[in-house]
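Per-record layout

source: Lentibacillus juripiscarius
name: BCCT family transporter
length: 531
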Amino acid sequence: MEQSKISKSVFFSALTLIAFIIAPVLINQEKGSQLLNTILNFLTGKFGAFYLLGAFIVFLIVLYLAFGKYGHIKLGDTKPEFSVLSWIAMMFTATAGSSLVFWGFIEWAHYYNSPPPFGIEPNSAEAAKWASTYGIFHWGFMGFVIYCLPSIALAYAVHVRKIPTLKLSSACRGVLGDKVDGWIGKAIDVFFMIGIVGGVGTSLGLGTPMLSEAISEVTIIPPSLWLDVGILLVWTLIFSGSLYFGLQKGLKVLSDINIYLYILFLFLFLVFGPTLFIINKMVGSLGLLLNNFMRMSFPMDAVGGSTFAQDWTIFYWGWWFAFASYMAMFTARISKGRTIKGLVLAMCGGGSVGCLLAFGFFGNTSLYYELNNIVPIMDIMSAEGAPAAIVATINNLPIGGTLLLLFFIVFCFIFLATTIDSAAYTLSTVSLADSKAVREPARWIRLFWGGVLCSVSVILLYGNGLDALQTLAVITGFPILFIYIIVTLSLFKWLKEDHPGYKTQKFNKKSYSIRDADIPPANQGSSRLDK
């Protein structure tokens, strides 16, 4: 059964704030962007250490939850709703989108040239080593643990504590109590909705020009605003089709197709690209990351004055924090019946591996072309932009050309359609008056929010305001750091109340499996709401 009654205060407050955010950027894009950049520079410059410490503390907490005494607790007393592959595919495709494809190809170029970390000389061999390493760090385990902590807390609140509303404010109920039913809870939910719109809007803004360039390469249609709008309309049609069939037959099937296409695209790059370079560089980058993990986690340079941490690592952590609410609500919905450990392994392990392969295969291929003077990736980026450099990389494969670009276009369309679908589902759930975890939002509500996401992207593409929206999304990550404290305290309060006197579990092969449907359910605790 679908839910169609919306919370007018949350629904219209979110729409009003989105309009207020977009309007200044459109009216005066330069001044609007300058204001947001000033705020961002202030936060990353003055409070950058808090982002770094916050991310690392979350990393430690998630490790403790997975491998400590609470790891085997099941998030609900029923069998999982989805197979392991579909479950991981839905989480991965919901978070990755076209941003992963876009940055997977060309992010190394920024670390290689402008300027590299730790005072390394730009365009040097040492810079090339770090260039492909930082991508898998920023898109790796440290990022996914930021998603994972609120996902565990909300899944526990909904499936174990039986709190009926699937909203992030529900994960704060252990500390805030009934206050989450008032303006405080509504403010938390509206605030997170802004982060979702900013994050997904930016993904659409990155993916649309990339697809425009690919379509222009295989047709006679030149890149233009109208082509961008056409691409967004096709995304809306794909999303609408998935929407009609719902979560089980729509988004699940779309995610499964997406992951198979992704694997096939990776395989083509591995086989027809510089295979040995891809493997050797990826292994070398992993070794460099592991050897320098603490150094990369705390890269503040108070003496040398480098801004690399603020420009990249702190920026990325703010981005992950801002986007975490979206992933928490979506992941909690699809993770009923899983264990805490299984959720951590699936989200952090599966997500990290998926991103590692993108940066390892796509990024190292374009890096190889640049280092060996096969394709002037840096020059193309400078003269024509990143989308043209991505298309040039694909075209240079031995099987490159029209067919591979057509495959790339279909793959990207479906990849971002799953992201839009997941985000619209989450926004719809938050905007409901009483969102039941077991019931889906009405189709018209999901379609409406999908239309909002696409409309925001069109408006900002037209007004050149995507950078401003991305900056705003990252700025929202700062206050979310403090909301994480409430979420964490609520979770541990519930765990201690429901599972008193737990001792650290003994090693058991079965308990370490992601297939936690086979693990006997633990004591699931009280089903009451905290007062």
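summary: Confidence is low (pLDDT under 50) at residues 504-531. The chain is about 75% helix and 0% strand.
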